[in-house]
Write a structure and sequence with these properties.
single chain, alpha/beta, 4 helices
Length: 102
């Protein structure tokens, strides 16, 4: 399951999270974002309880996109202890996403 991440819940869901968090920065008009979404959803099920998964709509949350320097989407970013530790840009295979998490 993925959680919608906004400026108002970012601290609670990401910064204060005890488990790693993978954020998917996306937009509804973005074709590659729609391609990677099912991959992210299936990994969210596979890693349930070990990694938190969130989605950030860059059109609705431009301040979060700016804060983390998101210039192209989809961008996947892994956070540990509230800080970004890994990221990938564009459509990537699930194995590459899993490698970012480990």
């Amino acid at each position: 399951m993925t959680t919608e991440i906004t400026s108002s819940n970012f601290n609670q869901e990401v910064a204060a999270s005890k488990t790693p968090v993978l954020l998917d920065f996306w937009a509804s008009w973005c074709g590659p974002c729609r391609m990677i979404s099912p991959v992210v959803e299936s990994l969210a099920e596979k890693y349930d309880g070990k990694v938190k998964f969130g989605k950030v709509n860059v059109d609705e949350q431009p301040e979060l996109a700016m804060k983390y320097g998101i210039q192209s989407i989809p961008t996947l970013m892994v956070f540990r202890d509230g800080a970004p530790v890994n990221k990938s840009i564009g459509v990537v295979p699930s194995e590459q996403i899993e490698a970012m998490l480990n």
